[in-house]
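Below is a filled-in request sheet from our internal design queue. Each sheet records the structural input a requester submitted and the sequence that came back. We keep these sheets so that new team members can see what a complete request looks like end to end.

REQUESTER: design group, bay 2
PRIORITY: normal
MODE: inverse folding
CHAIN LENGTH: 188
BACKBONE (tokenized):
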């Protein structure tokens, strides 16, 4: 009997049943899906570790910056306090210069025959106590004050005639613009 030569079948067995085909397909595709899911999970895990590392670095940097800020806080408070005091000083210097200029101008308005007893500032403006030898220098002085642009109102509070010395003592209240006194009366 002659031996039959071995045959090479390049086609798959056609008699495989559907269950074997589904199982083989599920095993190959299932392995592939499991590998893909594991790669995604490992990638997410690595990404999470990277984010945690960055978060620790940022928190560390914030803590260092807070420490520096806390050390500089006292210096900043001193600096701001100094700046506020310098601004106040500059404001007071400018205000003082304005007052000196106003006093100089008021003194320069005084005609011949008028002397000042006192010239003082108050919350309502300036109070002037002066001696005059007649009513004419007083009238000239009052008119000069009326024409002065920063004066809002003028009030003659008191007039005393000292006949023994031939001197008239007058007390004048001047309200400057921006200091109120809208209901102050204007004197002659």
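RETURNED SEQUENCE:
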């Amino acid at each position: 009997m002659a031996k039959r030569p071995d045959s090479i079948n390049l086609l798959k067995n056609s008699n495989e049943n559907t269950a074997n085909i589904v199982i083989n397909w599920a095993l190959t595709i299932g392995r592939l899906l499991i590998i893909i899911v594991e790669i995604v999970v490992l990638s997410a895990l690595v990404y999470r570790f990277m984010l945690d590392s960055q978060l620790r670095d940022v928190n560390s940097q914030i803590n260092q910056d807070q420490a520096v800020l806390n050390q500089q806080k006292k210096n900043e408070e001193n600096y701001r306090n100094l700046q506020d005091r310098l601004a106040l000083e500059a404001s007071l210097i400018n205000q003082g210069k304005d007052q000196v200029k106003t006093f100089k101008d008021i003194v320069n308005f005084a005609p011949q025959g008028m002397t000042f007893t006192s010239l003082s500032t108050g919350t309502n403006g300036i109070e002037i106590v002066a001696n005059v030898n007649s009513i004419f220098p007083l009238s000239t002085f009052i008119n000069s004050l009326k024409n002065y642009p920063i004066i809002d109102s003028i009030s003659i509070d008191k007039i005393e005639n000292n006949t023994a010395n031939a001197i008239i003592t007058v007390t004048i209240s001047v309200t400057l613009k921006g200091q109120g006194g809208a209901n102050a009366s204007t004197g002659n």
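SHEET NOTES:
- The longest helix spans residues 18-109.
- The beta strands are 114-121, 126-132, 151-162, 167-176.
FILED BY: M.R.
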